[in-house]
Amino acid sequence: MSMLKLALQNFKSSFRNYIALVISLAFTILVLLNFQYIIYSDAFTTLGERNKQYIDMVVQIISIVLGCFMFFFIWYATNVFLTKRKKEIGIYVFMGLTNQKIGRLYMLESIFTGLTALVLGIGVGTLVTHLFQLILVAISDVTVNIQFHFEPKPIIGTAVIYLVLYLVFVIKGYVSIVRSSVLDMVSAGKKNEYVKRKNWLLVLKAILGMCVLAGGYFLAVKNAGQEALNNATMAVVLVIVGVYLLFGGMIPFVFQRLEKSKKFLYQKQRTLWINQVIFRMKKNYRTYAMTCVLMICSVTALAAAFAMKMRYDKMVHFRNTYTFQVLANEPDLDDTLAETIGKDNEITYSGEITMLALDSSKIDTKYQQANYALLSYSQLKTLAEHAGLEFDLPEPSDQEVINLQNQPLISTITEQQLGTVNIGGKEFQEIADSKIPYMGYLQEDIRNYVVSDKSYEEMIPQGQQIYTYNYRIKDIYNYEASLDDLDALVNGAKDVYVGRVAVNPKDTELEWVKVMYSVCIFVFMVFILASGSILYMKLYNDAFEEKERYRVLKKLGIGKRTLAKSIARELFSAYALPFVVMAVSSYFSVEALAKVTRTDLLAVNLISVGVIFVFLVLCYLGSVVVYKKNVELRK
Fold it and tell me: Rounded to 5 degrees, what angle do the CA atoms 397, 400, 405 make?
């Protein structure tokens, strides 16, 4: 029999054992392909070139993340495949085959497995790409025309990325087999990730892991100024390292201490499974750490999705505080403007305020901006009352100032930093800042400072007074009905009017944020499925190794029901431990995200953890059923 036929025969006979591996690999290919299709799709071009660029940039970043995930997932999956096949194909040594031929046999089987996953992933991915984009658009709530079209570039790109990564690890497996002895291959299934460690080393890793994890948690929730971004990056690194050390040291150490407690060990038949949990934790701690990190990433991705959505809503509300804003050189123009706008629209509320426009050379502040203006405290309070906006700003003294800020998507500064501002040669102390849109759209491009009425009067010679008239209409989508008359009035008296602002509620400038929201939801689902499938595959593979042990236990007279309970408790710990660590760690990661987006995400955190809990319960129930079948406990 030729090597190719033998490899094909082995692939067919073992396919059922590796169907979870094939499906998982195919799923990662499917997801990456669908994200690549977004880049090459022209559906989002209708949102404008800027939105398209932002969407492509976000998708490319997500694709890089998915590519890194694919790298580690293929690494893990091929290691599982190699470990399992080493024990089986090691028997061929006794048939006279050299290690080189056995390695080639492994490569051929791996290639059949990888190509099956590729064909399945590309095939199903191409079929569902239209559906994927429709769902993406529906979640994003953007208006674009989605049409299915076959595009070879994303298919070729995805296939090349996958094949390069996959072949690297197949070659690595070939080298491993060539360098292995017969004993290594026959006993490979029992080695896996297990490394024997002394108690003092476990204690050291436990202490170090807790310290590193605590440091990551601290940096995640710490308020900071310009260093906030660096803190967040360091927090991510520390949490990943801390989780790894926790599963490699702290958790095994705790279970080993429980094992030595007779009071704990000899109750509820724990002797049947507690030692297995300890062995499995030492053996598979890298897998548990990886799945835990994936789950933390999934929760953070979902939190990012909702944070983006809530920030988008706030930014739109901020911008639409006033529908029309007219800037003029003269006072007492409210009646004329209200009459012009009122011809075709009902005015909900209106208000006027005088801005003192200042040249940037007269301002010395940490906030570098092109346009600056001063506002009188009493006038701003009156404007807020007319617009129905909350107003709880403290009244500044003659040497104090309040900073009105815009509503950014994210802020790298999470700590309120009040400093001093030099205006026209006079030093002012900042006493507060506010993101309430008192000045509407004009608060986005102009840095507004609120000073006392006396200070405002003193500063008038330093700048130019601009009378600002603000109007909000009842039907903001009917704003165009008043636009022509308003433009005619403003353009007809250019010596009186400086300009006008009309806010289009259908403006697509921020539509990319909504697409990012839906993309993050898909990333959340991908990482959840990945973490669940990794745990499932690991336990599925471990079941074959435990077959003999359960055979012995049955011969010793231990009932099937008792063994079934032992399996259930053993597998429960495999799912519960990563989940608990994830639930705790995710609070800090989501809290860090909440700080930079100035959004309350506690409810999102609880919901996402709940979703993961339900998914892991389903995986756990499936694992128990399959595990019992593989150890021949259901016969």
Answer: 125
pTM recorded for the entire structure: 0.73
Q: Has residue 623 got a pLDDT over 70?
A: yes
Q: Burial-class residue 210 by CB neighbours within 10 Å (0-12, 13-18, 19+).
A: middle
Where are the chain's structural domains? 1-190, 322-502
Per-residue model confidence as pLDDT tens digits over 475-515: 998 988 999 889 999 888 888 888 889 988 877 677 777 77
Neighbours of 63 (CB within 10 A): 21
pLDDT tens profile 219-248: 877 775 556 666 766 777 788 888 888 887
Amino acid making up residue 219: L
**b/e map of 459-490 (b: 16 or more CB within 10 Å)?**
beebbeebbbbbbbbeebeebeebeeebeebb
Half-sphere exposure of 83 (CA within 13 A, CB side): 19
DSSP string, 491-502: HHTTTTEEEEEE
Nearest to 357 by CA among 449, 420, 495, 453: 449
From 309-323, 486-500, 562-576, the region with the lowest mean pLDDT:
562-576
Positive or negative, the CA dihedral 160, 165, 170, 171 is: positive
Distance CA 276, CA 272 (A): 8
Count of other CB atoms within 10 angstroms of residue 100: 11
Q: Which phi and psi angles does 262 have, rounded to 5°?
A: -60, -35
| Cα–Cα distance, 365 to 428 (Å, whole number) | 10
Cα torsion 479, 482, 484, 487: sign: negative
In three-state secondary structure terms, 128 is: helix
- Provide CB contacts within 8 A for 211, sequence distance 6+: none
Amino acid 135: pLDDT: 73
Instruction: For 288, list phi and psi in degrees, rounded to 5.
Output: -65, -40
Secondary structure letter of residue 370 according to DSSP: S
Give the containing element (helix H, strand E) for 170: helix 152-178
What is the CA 239 to chain-centroid distance, rounded? Answer: 15
